[in-house]
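Q: Joint fold for the lines below.
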Amino acid sequence: AQKITQTQPGMFVQEKEAVTLDCTYDTSDPSYGLFWYKQPSSGEMIFLIYQGSYDQQNATEGRYSLNFQKARKSANLVISASQLGDSAMYFCAMRLGFQKLVFGTGTRLLVSP
Amino acid sequence: KAGVTQTPRYLIKTRGQQVTLSCSPISGHRSVSWYQQTPGQGLQFLFEYFSETQRNKGNFPGRFSGRQFSNSRSEMNVSTLELGDSALYLCASSLEEGRGTYEQYFGPGTRLTVT
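A: Joint structure:
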């Protein structure tokens, strides 16, 4: 069965600093996708970044990068130069092909001035 | 392109009533998935429709049902509402062209309160 684990219920970071949000996953399927979503207090889930299991390089999207360590089954999200608007819940998720997204429990990030 | 839209955004219903939620996917997306989010259970998958057919189904009682129309718009229905159905219901659409794993894009959600 697929499982996503996010062990950090909350994280604090100062504006302009970098922060790493942890995510480990478990699956026996060799083909999968890993995703990070941001959920502000408004409720909408915003897609941030995607990493395929066969991708050789770590994914990057602007200030977001995914530190993909396949052997350790980890897919940590790195946010560089944090901004106040980054304060939100962050969810790591996994998908096998066209199956459902399986989400972790989320990490609440608070960015302080 | 317009994003995923969901209507209504907020709903208040009474126990025993039924409710219908609507979702319009991103243009060209043929897959629509529904998720329920509650503080206690987190994000749980309800079902997914692809080209008007239910392709995947989560572990929810039969009171939860859905359908997809030929224009890919989807509706979900909850009958005989219970207090525990109070949640944020999120709809997501995905391109799903050929093989591979595709990201899902979410709508703003419908917040349902059952009293």
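Q: Anything notable?
A: The longest strand of chain A covers residues 88-95. The two ends of chain A are 41 Å apart (CA to CA).
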